[in-house]
Design goal:
This protein has five helices and seven strands. The protein is an alpha/beta fold and 155 residues long. Helix 3 links the parallel strand 5 and strand 6.
Amino acid sequence: MKQAASEFLANKRIAVTGVSRDPKSHGANVVYKRLKDRGYEVVAINPHADRVEGDSCYPDLASVPGRVEAVVIGTRPDIAETTMRECVDLGIGQVWMHRGPGAGSVSEAATAYGREHGVTVIDGGCPCMFGPTADGGHRMMRWVFGLNGNVPRHV
């Protein structure tokens, strides 16, 4: 898991799906802002918004100008498979499905589809729990959520 997280976070242009216009404690917005604050070029994806967190927002990954290197899925699990299919179609090889204390964005169907098509899928946890994006609170959550299976041990 640590190696997969490190490889994911080595990408410099990352899209985050499910970023909300109302950012109050929304997991995707937390990830978006943290990546941006740590110097990543982050792209917001939300089909119902033109701007999020003061930045341009795109309705889907195909609408993003230029190449996205990796994707954080921060939507409901029932949307994750559609996003994973779009990642495969666009040749995006690394996807992280966000998961904190609840079900998060993890979809077994999306995970299976991505892996069948050569995508490295991190199915749980949060990019803010690892490497250059981590803080003390997220490191503690990584430990706790690792105990209950919300952070995968292997990818």
